[in-house]
Amino acid sequence: MNVDGKAMRSIWVEPDGWSIGVIDQTVLPHRFATVRLTTLQEAAHAIRAMVVRGAPLIGATAAYGLCLALRQNTSDDSLERSYDSLLATRPTAINLKWALDEMVAAVRNRPRDERSAAAYRRAAEICDEDVAINTAIGRNGVALIKAIAQRKKAGERVNVLTHCNAGWLATVDVGTATAPIYLAHDNKIAIHVFADETRPRNQGASLTAWELAHHGVPHTIIADNTGGHLMQHGLVDLVIVGTDRVTAYGDVCNKIGTYLKALAARDNNVPFYVALPSPTIDFTVTDGVAEIPIEERAADEVATITGRTADGRIETVRIVPDGSAVANYGFDVTPARLVSGLITERGVIAASRAALARAFPDRAGAAE
Ligand code: MRU
């Protein structure tokens, strides 16, 4: 996507040919800054500290993290240790494990002097594949928006509600939930996005809104608790969210609060769609609620809030009483029965075991 007229991805190989550049998502929307990653440890820290975040981008960063590790040491032992340390950075998004497995498969059976180059090749492919997949998700999902636009009166816009950030910043480029939105906007369909702020890290207010503003997509940031009210008043035509892991049966794990939006959507007959690239499907999991590990993050993320003061300083302030207990669950699981459909690179399909296995027989078969 474009940042101030310059085409960018969220991750790239620097001109030196080996170190990795990423956008520092912890300082957006107030500052645009990039970070250079030079070691496995720096890549792992970037994922853990959410300098980079979003399931597909976490996978791509881990892939390059393994490349950085292999530059230092190409032994089997080091490969195994690097795999384990990257895998431990964040537990919920399955793209992390998928990308690491792809990387190990690409280098494991090679002589040690070929491993580093093979790793960089596979990591670059993983990034290019992500962009191609998301572009296809956009093509498949835009049909849903077009169909709603055709039922509208002239001048009326299609209102889409989204949660968290499943935009190009969460992927290598284009985004998942945002792919159909950007394509609709580029095709001159009148579209407007309600972006949930998404406490505690505010990915909707700070990242989705920043992206949409840069692309010129009309949008409104809402407090997390607003979606149900908007749906009751007919102000949302369609919900599109991203996901961090989809089970073999179509349960959807996504940023905390997604489940509540799905319940409100069902109660108000608003279609609730999930956009996902196939590496986000985990065919080894059958019951999402019982089996997917839900990340619990530091209490400080809930107990404090960070923003820009009137004189331009970035400050973090405490917003809860001293001594109150705080819980910080990062994700929740929306059961397949509440999902109207899955927008994938192979079409819009039902959130069911049969539909997932039919669309992705290669992945489903490998997990059996
Ligand atoms: O905790 P984060 O910011 O890494 O959250 C992940 C997400 O970005 C969302 O859950 C998103 O909707 C899925 S990733 C395209």
Short description:
With 368 residues, this protein is of the alpha/beta class. It has helices at residues 40-48, 55-72, 76-87, 95-107, 112-151, 178-186, 203-215, 227-232, 258-267, 288-291, 300-303, 353-359, 361-366; strands at 2-3, 6-7, 11-13, 20-23, 34-37, 158-162, 191-196, 219-222, 238-241, 245-247, 252-255, 272-275, 281-282, 304-308, 314-318, 331-334, 341-344, 347-349.
The poorly predicted ranges are none
Query: What is the residue-averaged pLDDT?
Result: 97
The share of residues in helices is 40-55%
Would you count the extended β strands for me? 18
Cα Rg: 20 Å
What is the CATH class designation of the largest domain? Alpha Beta
Class based on secondary structure composition and strand pairing: alpha/beta
The general outline is globular
List the domain count as a whole number. 2
Reading side by side through the largest sheet, how are the strands ordered? 8-7-6-9-12-17-18
Can you walk through the features of this model?
- The chain starts with a strand and ends with a helix.
- It has helices at 40-48, 55-72, 76-87, 95-107, 112-151, 178-186, 203-215, 227-232, 258-267, 288-291, 300-303, 353-359, 361-366; strands at residues 2-3, 6-7, 11-13, 20-23, 34-37, 158-162, 191-196, 219-222, 238-241, 245-247, 252-255, 272-275, 281-282, 304-308, 314-318, 331-334, 341-344, 347-349.
- Strand 3 (11-13) and strand 4 (20-23) form a beta hairpin.
- The mean pLDDT is 97.
- With 368 residues, the protein is an alpha/beta fold.
- Helix content is 41%, strand content 18%.
- It is globular and about 65 Å long.
- It folds into two domains: 2-128, Four Helix Bundle (Hemerythrin (Met), subunit A); 136-367, Translation initiation factor eif-2b, domain 2 (Rossmann fold, 3-Layer(aba) Sandwich), CATH 3.40.50.
- The chain has a seven-stranded mixed sheet with strand order 8-7-6-9-12-17-18, sandwiched between helices. It has a four-stranded mixed sheet with strand order 13-10-11-16, covered by helices on one side. Strands 3-4-5 form a three-stranded antiparallel sheet, with helices on one face.
- Helix 2 runs parallel beside helix 4.
- The longest helix has 40 residues, at 112-151.
